[in-house]
Design a protein that fits this description.
alpha/beta, Rossmann fold, 6-stranded mixed beta sheet, 6 strands, globular, disordered C terminus
Length: 255
């Protein structure tokens, strides 16, 4: 793991997106494909997602956290960038805070399976459904896509960058459900079994907060990042904004 930790690290999933809504409809109707046109990278927030991002920003602005981030890093996907921008506009961080875009925070890539529901996968690519069932999502890599291990590989490199450039800062990352989980794996040094058990317990809510603080080590050591909270939805609950969580289907989660 990298040395030179940030003082505080918040990891936030983006607000509810139009893709989340379309995916829910596809599963409710038993469809094989999610009804979205264009690139996944360009899927925006839903109106509820915009409200969630604003609630998150006001939560920080009102002093419910110990300080506000002075570094904000977002996935290049539109829904994450919109969440970060609305968070800033609501006072979650100083108005002149730059939103850094880092492609290593992008959504897990599903390759040929992107946009398909479980029904669609079994119908169009039954061999891939069988491979995922046998390998598990931690190691299964669909053609043109990524496994969780691939996501973890790029997140290790991103944490090295944070260590190099943002040591001692208050850093917020705005990304996707799989990224939140894989960052827990990286930062906490978890095993495959441990992170999959966490994943199975509950879905990562839109605009939820996962928070780490730097815990100094013995003299001459760099200490570690200590998990303080995971998947906290208090900002939305405080404003009575609906909390949304989306189950992780076989693929095409557009999370």
């Amino acid at each position: 793991m990298p040395k030179g930790w940030p003082d505080t690290l918040w990891v936030v999933r983006h607000g509810e997106s139009a893709g989340n809504v379309a995916r829910d409809f596809a599963y409710q109707q038993g469809l094989g494909r999610i009804d979205l046109t264009g690139r996944d990278v360009d899927v925006p927030l839903s109106e509820l997602g915009r409200q969630q991002a604003g609630a998150l920003g006001r939560w920080f602005a009102q002093g419910h956290e110990e300080g506000r981030p002075n570094v904000v890093i977002a996935s290049p996907y539109l829904r994450a960038q919109e969440t970060a921008r609305l968070f800033r506009e609501a006072g979650g961080c100083p108005a002149d805070t730059r939103i850094h875009i880092d492609e290593r925070l992008r959504e897990k890539e599903f390759g040929i399976l992107d946009g398909l529901t479980g029904i669609g996968i079994r119908a169009e690519f039954p061999q891939q459904a069988e491979l995922r069932a046998s390998l598990g999502k931690f190691y299964h890599r669909p053609p043109g896509g990524e496994s969780w291990c691939d996501v973890i590989f790029r997140l290790r490199a991103m944490m090295d960058t944070i260590s190099l450039h943002h040591s001692g800062c208050r850093v917020m990352i705005v990304a996707h459900q799989v990224v939140v989980l894989c960052l827990r794996y990286v930062v906490e040094g978890l095993s495959e079994q441990e992170i999959l058990a966490i994943d199975a317990q509950q879905d990562v809510a839109n605009c939820s907060i996962t928070e780490y603080c730097h815990e100094p080590g013995a003299e001459g050591t760099d200490g570690q990042m200590k998990l303080l909270r995971y998947n906290v939805t208090a900002p939305m609950e405080h404003e009575q904004t609906p909390v949304t969580t989306r189950p992780d289907p076989i693929v095409g989660n557009r999370g």
